[in-house]
Each structure stands twice: as C-alpha cells, then as structure tokens.
Amino acid sequence: MKNITALLTSFVAWIVSAIPFLGACPGIGCVGCGAACYTPAMSFFGLATSGIFASGVFLKLQPLFIALSAVLLTIGFFSIYRNKKFSNPEFRKMFPKLARRNKLTKIFYWICVAMSLSFIVYPLIYSDPQNDKELVSKLTKLEKTGSDLAFFNVDCLEYDAGKKSLTAYRPRVEYLAPQLDSVKNYALKHEIPMLITTCCSGRMPKKTELKRDEAVFVSLKKNDDWLTDFNPVANYYIEKKAYGDPKMNYDKNATEMFLNNENIDCLLDTLNVQNWIVFGNGFEACVVTAVNNLLERGYDVAIVEDLLISGAGGSPETKQKIIEHYRNNNVKIIQLSDLLKDY
After folding, report:
1. Please, are residues 321 and 342 in contact by the beta-carbon 8 Å criterion?
2. Which residues, at least 6 apart from 27, have a Cβ–Cβ distance to it below 8 Å?
3. Which residues contact 184 (CB under 8 A, 6 or more apart)?
4. CB atoms inside a 10 Å sphere around CB 92
5. Coil/strand/helix, residue 242
6. Backbone angles phi, psi at 5, to 5 degrees
C-alpha cells in the first residue's frame, strides 16, 4: 500500500507541476483560442472555457500549482524514506521481490522529482513576464472594448514593390480606389479590425515585406507568431496559396483561404466579433468563399453591393443571382453609403 501511495503521490505531483508549464509553452498566447495547439493546459485539463479567462488563471495560479507539487513530492518522500521496509537491509534479504519493487518506486519517485523540477524551472527561465502581461492586457482589452463588427477586404489589395507596402489596388479594382480608401479610413477612425487577402494571381507580400503597423501577417502554417503582434483593432493579412497559374489556382482550390490557412479559425475566435462586413474582388469565387465560410461558422454577414467586383469569368447576371440568393438566406445586402451611415 505504501508503494502505491508513493507512486500515486509522485505521479500527481508530476502532473500538477506540468500544469503551469503547459500553460506557458510555447507562450501564453496559445491559450487565446483554446485549440491553437495540443499543449495549452486549459484545453487539456478543462480549466477554462475561454482563452481570456485561461490566460489570467494561469498567470495567477502558477505559484499555487508549483507549491502543491512541492507538497505532494514531500509527502511522497516521507512515504518512501520514513517507511522502514524501504530501508531495512534484513527486510530486503527476506523479500527480494518486494525490495525490487521498493527500488523501482524510489527510481520512479526521483524521475517525477526531476520532471517536476524541469517543468517548474523552464517557464521561470524562458517565460517573458512582461510579454505575458502585455498579451493578457490585449486580450482583456478585446473582451471589454473590442469592436462589435469587422471588415473583410477580399482580394482588392496587392503588394507594391516600389513603395514596399500593401497599398496597390488590383487592376479591376482601381476605379473603386476612393471608395475603398474611405472604408479603410473609417475602420481606422472607429477602430474596426479588417481581414485582408490578395488575389491568387496578384503580388502577395512575404512576411518579411509586410510592415507591422500596416497589417499583422497570418501565415498559412499553424503558429502563434501573429498573436505576438495581436491587436483587437488591427488589420490582418491572411496568407493564401498561389501556384502561378490561374487554372492551377482553380484546380488546387487556392481561393479556399479558410481551408488552406491553418490560423484563420483561431484568429476569428480570438477577435470574437459576430458581425462581418464583406466586400471585394473576384466576387463569384473569392468573395463567395469568404461569405460562405463565415456563415458556416455562425457569423452574421453583410455584403457591400457596390464594392463587389466580378472575377474574370463573372457576369452581371451571375453576380445578381448570387446576391439574390444571399438576400433570401438572411445575408444583409447593403450599400457603401449605408455602411458609413449606419455603423
């Protein structure tokens, strides 16, 4: 029974010490969406239902978990080394099997001690308290003062190599530049977040080319880099796939930014915005993809009709049919003047 008690106590101490480690690795930003990776302790242990709450919990409870782990390891130590059967030489000779078990119990105990110490020391050495506080502050700000709507600018912009910025409009969109600029300025003035994509055939910026104050780069592959620069009212550039050939882009579903970008769902959850205003280029393909995916995820969507540009294979008739379909399925169809007036 003593062996079992020592084993269980040591194992529980190990798990308890792992909780703050998991909560801080690879960064407290991970808990922002609850499923960004498999390590966030709040997902694994079910300690919280929202990323914001979990962030605060782990910052405050790490010392408690560490103290609890130390107490349990102390209990495990006394269970082993205050037990005469563990240390009595005569007993070990009389019962060699039990002696081997006792030895294995000791080995397991010290493994748990070593693992617990590594779990405890790692976040103390490698965590950045200032960065953690700033990130929690951002997430808390989002909960309290975040916008109740967001914009999705689909494929209107592309990278301007000359200016080294994401300011060039696609050729089919240039005639709407003043209107699009007004939306951009409106978003900045009212602190409304905006998602931005570039057409698969357009000039897409690399992460190193995009200025942080211009937009936060959200990579195709899952990572938490974008959370480091997270701001509830920022622009977010959603990286898309591109194959250099229109037919190949179509065949390989390059327009499916929700399918291909592994961070976008986490971003949506972190932004925590219910109402989305969508507009953009390549209406029949890319804009429709954005609208449909937002609807499938339960968001409320409005489309700015006079900021919709058909793609190369589109037609006014097809465009109108799609708009009517959305109108009949609880998607708001608005004009730019309505947007600037009502919101």
Report:
1. no
2. 131, 135, 224, 227, 228
3. 194
4. 16
5. coil
6. -60, -45
State yes or no: pLDDT of 326 exceeds 80. Answer: yes
Q: Which three-class secondary structure state does DSSP give residue 286?
A: helix
Three-state helix/strand/coil letters over 64-125 = HHHHHHHHHHHHHHHHHHCCHHHHCHHHHHHCHHHHHHHHHHHHHHHHHHHHHHHHHHHHHH
* 4 burial level (CB within 10 Å; 0-12, 13-18, 19+): exposed
Token digits of residue 342: 């009502």
- pLDDT tens digits for range 155-182: 999 999 999 999 999 999 999 999 999 9
Tokens matching residue 248: 């190949």
> What is the rounded distance in angstroms from the CA atom of residue 56 to the CA atom of residue 49?
12
Sequence-distant (6+) residues with CB within 8 A of 230 are 29, 32, 135, 138, 139, 216, 270
* H or E stretch at 230: none
- Residue 121: CB atoms within 10 A of its CB come to 12
- Say yes or no to pLDDT of 123 above 80: no
**Angle (nearest 5°) at CA 49 between 43 and 50:** 95
Flag whether the pTM goes above 0.70. Answer: no
Identify whether the C-beta of residue 151 lies closer than 8 Å to the C-beta of residue 194. Answer: yes
pLDDT tens per residue, range 188-202? 988 899 999 999 889
CA distance 152 to 141: 22
Which of the four CATH numbers 3.40.1190.20, 3.40.50.850, 3.90.1030.10, 3.10.310.10 does domain 146-342 have?
A: 3.40.50.850
Cβ distance 120 to 21 under 8 Å? yes
Locate 302 and state its tokens.
């409005």
**CA separation for the pair 262, 257 (Å, rounded):** 9
> 99 CB contacts (<8 Å, ≥6 apart)?
91, 92, 93
Looking up tokens 């039990």 gives: 98
Q: Where are the domains of the chain?
A: 2-135, 146-342
Tokens of 236: 């977010």
